[in-house]
Amino acid sequence: MANAFDPYREALVVETRTIWPDEFASIDEAERERIEQLLHAQPQLCAELDYTRLHTGFCRDITVTQADLDRLAG
Question: Which site in 5, 12, 19, 47 is 20 to 30 Å from 67, CA atoms measured?
């Protein structure tokens, strides 16, 4: 289950990771990079957000959803 946006953890994010489900395999690499930048620029709007504890802080994990793609397309 994904976590809610957490300002405390956000302040300690030192890595980001974007998880692309297989259903979006047809999206080309350039478009994926553009989408990833937009998602990580506003993580509070993402449908599936999680934080992984690291020794130096947190990694923000965003799993791309159709809802995210629809929001970014509009």
Answer: 12
